[in-house]
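Hi, here's the filled form for the chain we discussed.

Project: internal
Contact: R.S.
Residues: 230
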Amino acid sequence: MKVRIKFSKYSSMIFIGHLDMMRYFQKAIRRAELDITYSTGFSPHQIMSFAAPLGVGMYSNGEYMDIGMDSITDAEDIKERLQAQMVEGVDILSVTILPETAGNAMASVAAARYTVRFREGYEPDFELFDHLEEYYRQETLPAVKQTKKNTVEFDLKQAIYELSWDKEKQEIYMLVNASSSGNVKPGFIMEHIYHYLGQEPSEFAFVITREDTYTEDADGNLIPLDQITA
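And the returned structure, exactly as it came back:
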């Protein structure tokens, strides 16, 4: 049986990297006495996978991980027992018992929604918000991404599914491709916007929150990963 756990990440826990988060949850699951499935072999380990590892320093209201379980009480019991083991900076938001046909979280990711704010003292000193509509209505947004093997030229416009903003709040909202084949990071998009406007952003300028992570349903619609029903 497989269970999908949705959690938030905030406070000082945003500085904990992916591998350490895995270890943190492994210990929390043992303390919660959940009947998690272990792999077979010489060195058994908990069956666990994360949907889309979060970058260090980023907040999130929509992180997901799947765990295998040998026996299950009910979703609310799992949530309460796991939440009781959390430290400040991580909250268990929901627990979903997955149907047998559900793919694993990592392979299912199609998109992610983000909110971008500006760190105090790093607010743009130019009319950024007045030019966002001009930026986004371009037919194409040529970009260059450096991978481990080579440099890739692509149209960033195809990876930005939604882009909106609130000038008064100084916030930018985006829904972007987060799949394994076309993943783009919100920080990369912000850098692209700055460069389009002839500006150079500071690497410390942006406070980024992942609001949720999405998969596609049978009709191709984007739905949060905890709304899987079949």
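Let me know if anything looks off before we file it.
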